[in-house]
Amino acid sequence: MLTAMMLVATGVFAPPTMNDGALSGAQILPTNECHFAAVEAGLCGADGDSSLDIWDEIATGGGGGGGGDTGSGGSGVAPGGSVPVVETGGGDAPPAPSPDLIEGWNCLGPGDDVLGPACAEAAEEEPAVPGSPEDPEPEAPVIPALVARDVASFAPGAGEPVIEPYGIAIAHAPMNVAFAPEARTVGGDLFGLPIEVTFTPEFLTVDYGDGTVVEAGPTAATWEALGQEQLTPTATSHAYADRGTYPVRVSTSYAASVDFGPWGVHEVSGFVVSDAPVVDVTVYEKQSFLVARTCEENPAGPGCAAVG
Which of these three, 71, 90, 124, is where a domain ends? Predict the structure, then answer.
């Protein structure tokens, strides 16, 4: 038994299941795809209309006899045709279909409200099953102001500086320190978040080991790169006053920024300092003498060491 409603077909369903020539259950077909048994059961009109009206209660299990009128309990004529249909109650004219129907079968309730396509088995509207909620947007983390010590552990290592000429120095003559650090990006985690830290060299600090410390630009070039002769002054050259061995230290001060991905790029306050390996420089003394013979010719001559 199917409670009164109207169905308007805008699509095609598969043929219904038949049982002893009658329509079983509450299977519904568009009128232009009616099976013979559905026509006998009075569920299809004969005027080619694709609308199917079912009023009051329609018996789908077996037959009902009746006279020739459409009164209560008798058999009548399906709308638009001559196929008998069993009606158990009187009927008013069916309501006009709503213009806001969706494609396919649509059911209209007693108040002409569109119930949608899922009403073939029962007239009562089943409660809607709530869908799965979308994953909520992750809450933005609180990222504090960054200082150099926060990213000091990510600081890039440094190569060994080059000492000119030939790794030694001559007292009272300029020696040169060459060093060229590069910008680098290092990955890791900070505050429990994946990050990338970019280090950009800003300036160098050179400690010559005799108490002299200078600051220079982000790179220190060789004499050749500068187009200069050896033993000429540069921004990172130094002349030692005495012979001996001195430790030369070069430090690079980097500006740093941290990329937190979707949470943005944060600048680091202060500089991150990276120290290069210490290089020992031996300083020799150069002496000039006006002699008649070389040291090979006269090993005992002035400024010559004993030749054995």
Answer: 124
Task: Answer yes or no: is 101 within a domain.
Answer: yes
- DSSP 8-class letter at 130: P
In angstroms, how far is CA 97 from the centroid of its own chain? 48
**In this structure, are residues 186 and 194 in contact, taking their beta carbons and an 8 Å threshold?**
no
- Specify if 290 maps to a domain: no
Of the candidates 260, 248, 32, the one whose C-alpha atom is nearest the C-alpha of residue 138 is 260
Question: Using CA of residue 24, residue 30, residue 31, residue 34, what is the dihedral sign?
Answer: negative
Residues 32 and 106 occupy one common structural domain: yes
Length of the chain, please?
A: 308
262 φ/ψ angles, rounded to the nearest 5 degrees: -65, -15
Considering the domain boundaries, does residue 130 fall inside one?
Answer: no
3-state secondary structure of 38: helix
66 and 10 in a common domain: yes
pLDDT in tens, 26-70: 444 443 444 555 555 555 554 544 444 444 334 444 444 444 444
**Are 279 and 156 in a shared domain?**
yes
User: Can you tell me the distance from the alpha carbon of 5 to that of 94, in angstroms, rounded to the nearest whole number?
Assistant: 9
Q: What is the pLDDT of residues 107-131, one digit of tens each?
A: 666 776 666 666 644 444 555 556 5
- Under the banding of pLDDT at 50, 70 and 90, the label for residue 302 is confident
Q: What is the pLDDT of residues 179-237, one digit of tens each?
A: 999 999 999 999 999 999 999 999 999 999 999 999 999 999 999 999 999 999 999 99
Domain hosting 79: range is 1-124
- For the chain, the domain total comes to 2
